[in-house]
């Protein structure tokens, strides 16, 4: 019987993970493992998956990254600090441990991209699920940041305050977009940032990976900023899942 891995969530029609692991298994000649999609419309259905004797672990996506936490026996640092689980490992004794591989994916890709991050301050655009992994990484790397939200109660500043506040943008040259603005098919959308103030000192990181260059990135690039999309983060978080299941 093959070792079973997979993804739970709803809906799963656009899943990157199944294709990623199929290619990986082929490329690395891993023949004893299979990665399947488990589209479940209620979190309680995860019990059926737990009853599979060959289950080694699985990824978790929207809308279950928080709800799955009630099924875990323990958590690693990333899941505890982020407050969400997107990787579950079934241990040899049957115990279930929750991890957050978005945390590792973002942290490793940021460290690759800007090895010298001393002195940088950041703006995080959006306060949703992915932003929580970004917040934890910046805290762990001692990068000071402000959260920008449409809702004054959820962030440190609203977009209006960012536009009108003197020097806020200049003092925070690392800008991380965790909103879905600009994601395919709505590729003309972008966060409400004053691009006339962006220059070659800025680093713009977009968590979006489709399209490869979002409008947020292209407007920044035209002003001289360095830009990066979310593809490396996505691949690194998938590889981290594999490492977790096989360690
Ligand atoms: N590269 C990767 O590995 C990776 C991993 C995870 C996620 N992502 C990408 O990150 C993006 C966010 O994912 P998520 O799971 O965090 O989504 P989410 O939980 O829905 O959060 C997105 C946040 O963006 C803000 N937002 C939403 N619609 C907006 C709008 N029309 N205008 C301005 N702000 C808006 C909201 O924050 P406020 O209410 O505070 O404004 C919202 O909480 C997606 O594009 C996803 O594909 C990439």
Key phrases:
alpha/beta, Rossmann fold, single chain, 247 residues, six-stranded parallel beta sheet, binds NADP nicotinamide-adenine-dinucleotide phosphate, 2 domains, six-stranded mixed beta sheet, 8 helices, elongated
Q: Helices, strands, pairings?
A:
Elements: E1 3-9, H1 17-27, E2 33-39, H2 46-50, E3 55-60, E4 74-75, H3 77-82, E5 87-90, E6 96-99, H4 101-113, E7 122-125, H5 129-140, E8 145-149, E9 157-158, H6 159-164, E10 174-177, E11 203-206, H7 215-222, E12 226-228, H8 231-245
Parallel strand pairs: 1-2, 1-3, 4-6, 7-8, 7-10, 8-9, 10-11, 11-12
Antiparallel strand pairs: 3-5, 5-6
Helix pairs in contact: 4-5, 4-8
Bound molecule kinds, no repeats? NADP nicotinamide-adenine-dinucleotide phosphate
Average pLDDT: 96
Distance between the termini: 20 Å
Low-confidence stretches: none
| Strand fraction | 15-25%
What's the helix-strand series?
Answer: EHEHEEHEEHEHEEHEEHEH
Q: How many individual β-strands?
A: 12
If helices are DSSP runs of H or I spanning 4 or more residues, what is the number of helices?
Answer: 8
Structural class, by secondary structure, is alpha/beta
CATH class of the largest domain: Alpha Beta
Proportion of helical residues: 25-40%
Give a short account of the largest sheet: 6 strands, mixed
Shape: elongated
- Rounded radius of gyration (Å): 19 Å
Strand order of the largest sheet: 2-1-3-5-6-4
CATH superfamily of the largest domain: NAD(P)-binding Rossmann-like Domain
Number of domains: 2
CATH topology type of the largest domain: Rossmann fold
Q: What is the CATH-assigned architecture of the largest domain? A: 3-Layer(aba) Sandwich
